């Protein structure tokens, strides 16, 4: 059985991590696989746009290395990264979502 201290430690680590920015290039390295039909940069633009809710043309305007992205974007990407990690854990049945977890 896990102790309360262990659970508090996990909660603290997640809270600390979610406050750290995740730059667009790192987000792409983690979550974008090479798609020969689309190209890596285009796939990155699409993934970042999906994660942030911004348009692909807006993301494209940030430059080749996304250096002109707004300051809030790396924080949105960190949130998306954490959600992606939880999604992978759930899909791999390493964690299970509670029955009252929102369906939409």
Question: How would you summarize this macromolecular structure in one to three sentences?
Answer:
By secondary structure, the chain is mainly α. 58% of the residues lie in helices and 0% in strands.
Q: How would you describe what is shown here?
A:
- Helices cover 58% and strands 0% of the residues.
- The chain is mainly alpha-helical and 104 residues long.
- The protein is built from five helices and no strands.
- The radius of gyration is 16 Å and the shape is globular.
- Helix 2 packs across helix 3 and helix 2 runs parallel beside helix 5.
Distance between the termini: 33 Å
Q: Provide the low-confidence segments as ranges.
A: none
Tell how many strands the DSSP assignment holds: 0
Helix content: 55-70%
Helical run tally = 5
Radius of gyration: 16 Å
What gross morphology would you assign?
A: globular
What is the typical, i.e. mean, pLDDT? 90
Give the biggest beta sheet.
none
Outline the fold blueprint.
Elements: H1 4-18, H2 24-31, H3 40-52, H4 56-60, H5 73-91
Give descriptors for this structure.
mainly alpha, 104 residues, 5 helices
């Amino acid at each position: 059985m896990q102790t309360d201290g262990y659970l508090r430690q996990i909660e603290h680590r997640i809270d600390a991590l979610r406050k750290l920015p995740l730059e667009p290039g790192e987000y792409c390295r983690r979550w974008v696989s090479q798609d020969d039909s689309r190209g890596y940069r285009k796939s990155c633009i699409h993934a970042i746009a999906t994660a942030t809710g911004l348009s692909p043309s807006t993301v494209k305007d940030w430059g080749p290395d996304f250096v002109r992205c707004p300051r809030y974007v790396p924080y949105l990407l960190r949130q998306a990264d954490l959600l992606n990690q939880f999604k992978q854990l759930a899909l791999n049945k390493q964690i299970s979502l509670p029955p009252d977890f929102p369906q939409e």
